[in-house]
Design a protein that fits this description.
Layout: H1 11-17, E1 23-28, H2 40-45, E2 47-50, E3 53-56, H3 67-78, E4 85-88, E5 91-96, H4 99-115, E6 126-129, E7 131-134, E8 137-140, E9 143-146
Antiparallel strand pairs: 1-5, 1-6, 2-3, 4-5, 7-8, 8-9
Length: 149
């Protein structure tokens, strides 16, 4: 099997996209990888041996070398062409200069997730905030600061 080498975004590149933004929403997917179906060819190599016999994964299992790249590519494809929407694996950040733009992009993301039957972990979401914690930093309209916690 050839590993999926799709690049995962670097934190500095993500933070650069958030400059000049004042409103932030963070959306987290439930059981992220397991929401993506794998194709029939991939299923053949995703067979595991258990005490109850052989089982084949129908969905992308976490823990595979190729899973992060495959998932990142899928998310970027699903959310392509949405201004201010940044994807880092199962976390989606919406960073915009105005609350109206943030609302519009949140609704667009929700629509895309609905089209692709993706479910959200609402307990981990933050919507329409002026400050969020992300990748070990606090992001607000003044910039990016290390998270003290």
């Amino acid at each position: 099997m050839v590993p999926n080498l799709y690049p995962i975004p670097h934190a500095d590149d993500i933070f650069a996209q958030m400059s000049l933004c004042k409103y932030f929403s963070k959306i987290d997917l439930s059981d992220a990888y397991l929401q993506l179906e794998v194709d029939d060819e991939s299923k053949k190599i995703l067979t595991i041996n258990t005490h109850r016999g052989l089982f084949t994964f129908n969905r992308l299992p976490p823990g595979l070398t190729s899973a992060p790249g495959a998932f990142q590519k899928a998310m970027e494809t699903i959310l392509s062409n949405l201004e201010g929407v940044i994807t880092y694996l199962d976390d989606v950040i919406i960073a915009t200069p105005s609350i109206q733009e943030n609302y519009k992009m949140v609704m667009n993301v929700m629509e895309r997730f609905k089209e692709h039957s993706l479910t959200i972990n609402w307990s981990k979401c933050e919507i329409f905030k002026t400050s969020i914690k992300y990748l070990g930093h606090v992001i607000d309209e003044k910039g990016i600061h290390p998270d003290a916690s």
